[in-house]
Design goal:
Elements (H helix, E strand, L loop, with lengths): L4 H14 L5 E10 L8 E2 L7 E9 L5 E6 L12 H10 L8 E3 L3
Parallel strand pairs: 1-5
Antiparallel strand pairs: 1-3, 2-3, 3-4
Protein name: PiggyBac transposable element-derived protein domain-containing protein
Organism: Graphocephala atropunctata
Pfam family, one: DDE_Tnp_1_7
């Protein structure tokens, strides 16, 4: 993942400048199909593409991706909060205290 870290950072910064999220924002996970060899490749039995790279996205009301985070496996810092709560707080942090409504699933 370190090989594309600059590209991921550049894309996230570019996405943020293109649109300012309205009152409603959504956080969802997606799977990019990938059958190659990766340490952090995920197996998700309930998804159409069972093997792939898991991505958490923060989207604006029109479906535009404002920012995203690639899941690269367990982190060393495992505290009381679970993965979902940690990802939601990390993605939403720049948009807190602006009266926005955050929608998530499971």
């Amino acid at each position: 993942l370190y090989k594309i870290e600059k590209l991921v950072t550049l894309l996230n910064e570019s996405f943020k400048t293109m649109v300012i999220p309205t009152e409603k924002i959504c956080i969802d996970e997606s799977v990019v199909p990938f059958l190659g060899r990766l340490i952090f490749r995920q197996y998700l039995k309930n998804k159409r593409h069972r093997y792939g790279i898991k991505i958490f996205k923060l989207c604006a009301e029109g479906g535009y991706c404002v920012t995203y985070k690639i899941y690269s496996g367990k982190e060393q810092d495992q505290r009381a909060t679970n993965l979902s709560a940690k990802v939601v707080l990390e993605l939403v942090e720049p948009y807190l205290d602006f009266g926005r409504t955050v929608y998530t699933d499971n």
